[in-house]
UniProtKB/TrEMBL annotation:
Entry protein name: DUF4283 domain-containing protein
Domain DUF4283: 52-134
Short name of one Pfam family: DUF4283
Taxonomic lineage of the native organism: Eukaryota, Viridiplantae, Streptophyta, Embryophyta, Tracheophyta
Organism whose genome encodes this protein: Salix udensis
Domain of life: Eukaryota
Amino acid sequence: MNNKEKQQPQTTWAERVRVTNSSTRFSLDPIPRCTGETKLTIKDDCFMDDVDQWTRCLVGFFPGFRLPFQAVNTIASRIWKHCGLEHVMATSNGFILFRFKTEDELHEVLGKGPWMFGGKNIILQQWHPHYSFDKSKITTLPMWIRLKGLPFPLWTTQGLSHAASMVGKPLSCDEHTHEYTRLDYARVCVEVDATLPYVHHFEIDCSLSADPIRIEVEYEWKPKRCEKCKVFGHSCPPPQTQQIYIQKTPLDPSHLTTVQPLTVTHQEATTSNTVPVLTTPQPPPPQTLSQNTPTATPTLDTTVRVAPPQPQPDKQPNQDTTLAITLDKQPTHHTHLATIGMLETDASICLENRMA
């Protein structure tokens, strides 16, 4: 084969986009362009032309994980091939759509949930016109719960609906609950709101019992719920607290104030003829109390009582006569009298030391 045969003829752009097979060509309505408008208004009848094929679809996604489409298609075709599965589709942001032949078969698959694909939980929900294919805006999810302790007279459509409404929006119940073939708990499917906290128990007040009946709620599977964003599918980490360490500086000894004791030499005490006056804190001024009835003013006894004279010892040799203390020159204040008594004691001690 020569080089000319290997070269293919060049095709134009018109030939590439031209549809040659009439079976793949689907014509649209030739609606004229709306000029001068930036918003398109669609009537409701336009949505209802082929909405049935979407109401028979289950929308699923894996929270925090993304399984390859080929693996999802293989698993779904194997486990749901007897449940009327027709087609499996996927979006670019991780949502998978499973279309069934009838809605009854769709609800049968939901009733047998929750499901796991490849060891990962998949969240399934029936498609509705207001469904948002945004994982950050999923505020409601269907969940299967078990109501333990529910009285048997309430195992009816009305009774189960009232009991399930304490947890979420009632959707359905399984076959065992409807046929009373399993009496350990009532299994119902409810639509849980992410903006509300999970309910784990509640009480029923009815005529069946004098005391309130406690109902325990058990979730077969709870997806991640963000307390901050109020959505399902993720959980924001709590705010981290930063610890600040402050180093303690050692205390400078130069800043400390030392109190030096007062020392008086013997010569200073003997050469002074006057008694030193000690500075004492003055008492606070008396407070005047206002009373309705007059009271007697207390009188202060100012009489100075002088102790009787003590016998003086005989004059000894080398006795210093400058230590004589005259009481008649000192004031009669009680603090000065106490000071004089202290000095008399010190003087007597000094005399005894000199005599010794």
